[in-house]
Amino acid sequence: MGFLQRFFKAKSNKKSQAGDIYASLMRQSRQPEFFGPERFPDTYDGRVDILTMHLAVFMDAVRSAEMREGINTGRNNEGSLSQAVFDVMVKDFDTALREEGYTDTGVKKRIKPIVGFFYKRLKTLTESLSEPTKLLEAVQQGALKEESSLFANHVTEYLQSMREELSGKTFDELAEQKYIFPNF
Questions:
Q1: Which among 34, 110, 38 has a CA at the least distance from the CA of 118?
Q2: What pLDDT score does 1 carry?
Q3: Which residues, including other chains, have CB under 8 Å from residue 146's CB and lie 6 or more apart?
Q4: Do the beta carbons of residue 56 and residue 129 sit within 8 Å?
Q5: What is the pLDDT of residues 22-78, one digit of tens each?
Q6: pLDDT at 131 (0 to 100)
Q7: How far is the C-alpha of 29 from the C-alpha of 139, rounded, in Å?
Q8: Coil, strand or helix: which one is 11?
Q9: Gap between the Cα atoms of 107 and 137, Å rounded
Q10: Numbers of helices and strands, H then E, in the chain
């Protein structure tokens, strides 16, 4: 197999893995147990917030595995699996907006704040993953800010369990989804 064939096959495989991972994280974040009275509101904000929490834990685990295993992700992380998953998410949001009837101009206007919100939440959540008190505060800053603190504690414990499950995995295990989501 020539260089170009290997290069494009590797990119295609990473895109495929990223799509599968994103779909898995999306399915998990849509579990009915997350939504309802004194839980996440079943609204756009609530659904994006719980998805972002799942993505934050996953992306943190991927970055850690890449660093542990010395995987070179290229300049500005463009070759990382977490970047590929992010790209799939943005494409999914783009598609959803287009299905709602937005044009190219409308999508561009709306995607930018969505991505900005995602990055802000991702940073807050990722920086607090190792400290339960800070993680609880981060969980309560999003769509749960007016909901039950008991539920926020439960979400925090769930995210910590998910982090424990993923943090011991190799890069290949994460990329191939060889992990189990904790019970909620």
A1: 110
A2: 47
A3: none
A4: yes
A5: 999 999 999 999 999 989 999 888 999 999 999 999 999 999 999 899 887 666 556
A6: 94
A7: 14
A8: helix
A9: 32
A10: 7, 0
Question: What torsion, rounded to 10 degrees, do the Cα atoms 139, 140, 146, 151 define?
Answer: 60
Give the tokens for residue 27: 């399915």
- Could you report the per-residue pLDDT of 65-112, keeping only the tens digit for each? 998 998 876 665 566 898 899 999 999 988 888 888 888 888 888 888
Residue 28 CA to residue 26 CA, distance in Å, equals: 5
Closest CA to 80 of 14, 170, 141, 19: 14
**Coil, helix or strand at residue 50:** helix
Our measurement of the distance from residue 106's CA atom to the centroid of its chain's CA atoms, rounded to an integer in Å, reads 24
With contact defined as beta carbons under 8 Å apart, do 97 and 131 qualify?
no
Return the structure tokens found at 64: 């850690």
Q: Which residue, chain included where needed, has tokens 């990382």? A: 80
Torsion of CA 149, 60, 131, 51, to 10 degrees: 0
The residue type at 93: F
Do the beta carbons of residue 176 and residue 75 sit within 8 Å? no
